């Protein structure tokens, strides 16, 4: 049926022009914010490494950030989950204060030595800044949903230097088992342009080298399948542990600023005992995982430090710690599965994230962007298996179940709905 007197492709041009403009604006805002954030993060990390005594002030820093959020940030404390909820059920524009609050909170967390990531901050800044266009252009609910998704994609892409993965992440993270194709063009444009904006500001991303990829054989496929199961279970354990720690702290410590204060004290004492290997982003250790055998308990150390930091209320993200956990776990399993250290580290890097965030497609594409196309078949297998074995929960509470991962017994389906 012909809907207009013009060919469909001609009628599409205004749509392309509109979303090219809006998505590019989102990308410029998000890419610039991410560049500022990454520069501040580098400064904070380098300063902390040069003055390691600063870790003893982590409890005080946690109290201050918690107090600020209590006084002026209670409406935006949900972070990524607030953005996802607003996409599912649009209610009101995300307050602009979310962007500076999460930026300052995350930089302070890293400066004083908490074990947190950076994805959450970039995504929240991207989504918040994008949503301000709702007022300027008087966007309808359907258009606002797409702008928010473009902001998420732009933030993810610009902080990791993975534009295609960032675009798919914004489409995939909202609901398990479903993609929002109505936003695919804005998300692609926003992610690609935001990545270019970050590089124009001088942002440089870490390079992870995988020197050789094992040939595809029966054993290598079986080994990657086994590794994928472990990666998925660890991703599920991380998500559940973080949520449980947060619920425990909220239940037994009603006054919010005391939670990161006590969590910071625990982290500081642990650093005094174990050293600084498990705090901050941990990029040097991730790089080591691609180069040489590491202690088999490194993944567990980062797991515990990150759960303690995020669960007690420090600001940041989960994704880079998940990269650390996955890369070091893969490194530990490599001798057992008779596969190269770098290959298993790379697969763990993306697959634990795929399981914890329920984003197997974005994670697979990220592997190809970071490590090269040769890893594609193995990455796809590891990420999909990790996704299946991580259950129907994840690091984002607002993420909905669009389609079950596999057929469940009636009792299990009812429990999942509840």
TrEMBL record:
Q: Which PANTHER family match?
A: CHLORIDE CHANNEL PROTEIN CLC-E, CHLORIDE TRANSPORTER
Q: Name one GO cellular component term.
A: membrane
Location(s), subcellular: Membrane
Q: Membrane as a keyword?
A: yes
Presence of the UniProt keyword Nucleus in the record = no
Q: Which UniProt keywords apply?
A: Membrane, Transmembrane, Transmembrane helix
**A single GO molecular function term of this UniProt record:** chloride transmembrane transporter activity
Membrane topology reported for the UniProt record? Multi-pass membrane protein
What Pfam families has UniProt attached to this entry? Voltage_CLC
Q: Which domain of life is it from?
A: Bacteria
Write out the transmembrane intervals.
20-41, 53-70, 146-171, 183-204, 216-239, 260-279, 336-357, 377-396
Q: What is this protein called?
A: H+/Cl-antiporter ClcA
Major localization class: membrane
